[in-house]
Amino acid sequence: MLDNAAAVLTRLLAESGRELVDFSQKDVEPVNEGFIVGYACGVRTPQDTVERVTIYVNTSPSAPTDEHTVELTDAAGRRLTAWVYPQDPSLPSLPAVSYPEAAGVVLAKFGIAAEGARLRMEAYRPGKRAVLRVETASDRWFAKVVQPSLASTIHDLHERFQHAGVPVPRSLGFSDAGLVLLGELQGVPAIDVFERIDRPRFAAGLDELTRHISTVRVTIGARESLARRVGWYAERMEETAPLFARQTSRLAQLVHERYAATAVPAPVTIHGDLHLGQIFVDERDPSAITGILDIDTAGLGDPADDRGALFGHVVVSSLERASTVGSAQALSAFADELQAGWHGDARVAAIAATHLLGHALANAGRGDERGAASAQQLLERAQSVLG
């Protein structure tokens, strides 16, 4: 993805009088026409001290910039943009909630006294979103940082889901700079206790939850089905891991053909990115669903998208937890049960295969043997799904 990461990072740091000591690739996020690649770096300051920072480099030619972004060109003449975390140009609210002192000021605008608040990053997808846990002396909140244009929509979705009785976190409000403040959801993520779950009972509860979601009255469309842009994954794989490019290209063509040959169903409200990390269950009775998170991409859409997304996440989770035998076996069995449930539905199969291609791309982008092995397994499962 970067022909010479060391040279790019060195040039970036030199502009502020600092020197690169060491670096390692941290994460990769596919975006638009390229990738955002994160690097954990050791940096020598002008005062001859070494500090640890995370630098993100965006290879997309249309990447946004702000006053904290540095623009560079690589050896091939491609435009690159880079920033030091938390100065993400797509998430202008991120710096304001990344430090306790600043977070206290922000939370005060929501009517929350947060002096001495403790912060912990729960999730960060560069260029897309971040979720920070904020703990005060008596309460726990979650600050969701998103692109500014999305904040009001996400707040509205939470209010609509709550009005319909779907258990989602309460939204306390939003800011036009791209911050949504959410309350805590009772329970624990299903993925964390899956080996203790009675799968048939959980599956029945999940069916009921999706039916409940379908009754929510919304006025926006869900995120576009990944199957409509499956060719993008093949293109990115060619850039990231040419070893898998031909196999991915063949699978993408199969997905395109199968998906295009199916009838488009009447839209209903769907979650838009369903997986076990977002489905919460009772910790003492983990087969009982208590709520659902991350409805940012919810809207009118195709139920097959939620089914395909869930399957893809369950498959990749079974690989990621291979060292935890009980959890891996339970997840693998659940993936087989999900697939048996939509056997013969070409539309769900095409969408499920697309999600597997996306997960294969993410694993191949890690650049290590384990990632490559996981990518190969995911591509093979996509082939079997397409039959």
From TrEMBL:
It comes from the Bacteria. Residues 131-311 form the Aminoglycoside phosphotransferase domain. It holds the Pfam family APH. SUPFAM superfamilies: Protein kinase-like (PK-like) (SSF56112). InterPro entries: Aminoglycoside_PTrfase, Kinase-like_dom_sf. This is Phosphotransferase enzyme family protein. It comes from Agrococcus baldri.
